[in-house]
Amino acid sequence: MPTETRSADFCRQLRAFLLAALEGVAELHRENVVHRDLKFENVILLNGDWTQPVIIDLGLSRLIGLASVTVYPWAGGTWLYMAPEQLHGERAFDRAGRSRSGDTSGGTVP
Questions:
Q1: What's the per-residue H, E or C state across 94-105?
Q2: What is the pLDDT of residues 50-60, one digit of tens each?
């Protein structure tokens, strides 16, 4: 198989994987659930099919809108995937109410 064909096939599979994984996150959010530990290790493939990812390990998940969603400082989750403000024990929103999720660290996925 030519390299271009393999590369195009990989890109199609990657796109299908990402879209399906994001749909899984959207479904959780429609049910008012936030995962809080989403990472590659918590996504499995149904029947080994990259187009059918399944989000697993909801042990740290919480219902959106509960007063006790996160107690600061909170050190739950996986260190390499934590938001910088979580690592520093800061709130997720600054004083102006804007999300600080635009901050990145070496271990976060953009």
A1: CCCCCECCCCCC
A2: 999 999 998 88
